[in-house]
Design goal:
The complex is a heterodimer of chains A (155) and B (90). Chain A has 155 residues and is of the alpha+beta class. Helices cover 34% and strands 34% of the residues of chain A. In chain A, α2 runs antiparallel to α3 and α3 (101-118) crosses α4. The longest helix of chain A is centred in the C-terminal third of the chain and has 18 residues, at 101-118. Chain B has helices at residues 13-19, 35-43, 48-53, and strands at 6-11, 23-27, 61-64, 67-69, 80-84. Classes of the chains: A alpha+beta (155), B alpha+beta (90).
């Protein structure tokens, strides 16, 4: 089981990360993947992502370990970018390697739901007219994470 | 300030913007001290602190030494106490 967590400003290659995750994992049957990108609309030009260095990495590592234990993953990669990102740019990559499809896909959704509610990131929107505004947390994200709360919570 | 126990307070996102600082030290009084006491102390300050930490303030989350914490969690000398809005990553 390999867990790779990275919080970085640089872009990443989804395929290079997939290859790295799968290296030597002969018992793997599939990779669940989620690539989050900056969604445009309403005059949005870019997002700036801020985080709490140290706590971010430890929370993400914990979420990955929880996913590994719960779904029997063979490997998990979570990369989250910070800094200023334009519309359409990738923000987050989650890859979950498992023997079977259900575990790979469920673990990917699990990781995303917990990332959105437990990892200390904050988004500031920047609009074409120069306005900026911090994004409010969505109650829908808490509800999505709560559906996994079978036996306690991640983190 | 030799011998005076302090904690470090960190602010993120709109709290930092509103307060105009990302960190500060706060002396710890004698006796047991909790996150709720830190919030009350900050709310008793003038101006933006009262707006941020008072009853009219927005939703705020707290971490002590990088673990999510609530008002009843204890605070000790040397602790890192962070205040921030509900998270919006992913």
């Amino acid at each position: 089981m390999t867990i790779r967590v990275s919080v970085q400003t640089a872009a990443f290659s989804m395929d290079a990360e997939r290859a790295r995750l799968m290296q030597g994992a002969h018992e793997a049957g599939g990779v669940g993947a989620f690539l989050g990108v900056v969604r445009g609309g309403a005059g949005l030009r870019a997002l700036t992502l801020e985080h709490y260095p140290g706590m971010t990495e430890s929370m993400i590592g914990r979420i990955a370990a929880e996913a590994q234990a719960r779904f029997g993953l063979l490997g998990c990669t979570i990369i989250h970018r910070v800094g200023r990102l334009g519309v359409g740019e990738p923000i987050v990559l989650v890859l979950c390697l498992a023997a079977h499809r259900a575990a790979a896909l469920d673990a990917t959704a699990f990781v995303m739901d917990w990332l959105k509610t437990r990892a200390p990131f904050w988004k500031r929107e920047e609009f074409e007219d120069g306005r900026t505004a911090w994004v409010d947390a969505r109650e829908a994200d808490d509800a999505a994470a709560a559906r996994w709360a079978r036996d306690g919570r991640a983190g | 300030m030799e011998g005076v126990p302090v904690i470090t307070i960190l602010y993120f996102a709109w709290l930092r913007d509103r307060l105009g600082r990302s960190s500060e030290s706060m002396p710890l009084p004698e006796g047991a001290w909790y996150v709720g006491d830190v919030i009350r102390t900050l709310a008793e300050r003038d101006g933006d602190y009262r707006l941020v930490f008072g009853p009219q303030g927005g939703a705020i989350r707290c971490a002590v030494n990088q673990e999510f914490a609530g008002p009843d969690d204890g605070v000790r000398e040397g602790d890192e106490v962070a205040f921030f809005p509900p998270v919006t990553g992913g």
